[in-house]
Q: What sequence folds into this?
């Protein structure tokens, strides 16, 4: 009996919206962060130990390289002073 092959599914920058939790691996470590802004060109995320602003193409490369992962989480991982900025984009 032949079983159908699973379709390879990939996450892209298109999946990142304000409030999405990501796990970002950078040169000196890794940390959880929350996406605080998404524009037609950039995705910005902020965490207690990291932050970043990348183009959609850069985000896709980070995901492909395993340096950025979407995390299913319902907590915000931003410093308290960033929370009003996140809430204003919703």
A:
């Amino acid at each position: 009996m032949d079983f159908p092959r699973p379709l390879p599914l990939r996450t892209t920058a298109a999946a990142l919206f304000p409030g999405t939790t990501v796990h970002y691996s950078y040169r000196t470590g890794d940390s959880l962060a929350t996406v605080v802004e998404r524009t037609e060109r950039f995705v910005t995320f902020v965490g207690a130990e990291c932050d970043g602003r990348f183009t959609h193409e850069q985000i896709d490369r980070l995901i492909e390289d395993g340096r950025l992962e979407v995390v299913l989480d319902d907590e915000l991982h931003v410093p308290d002073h960033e929370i009003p900025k996140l809430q204003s984009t919703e």
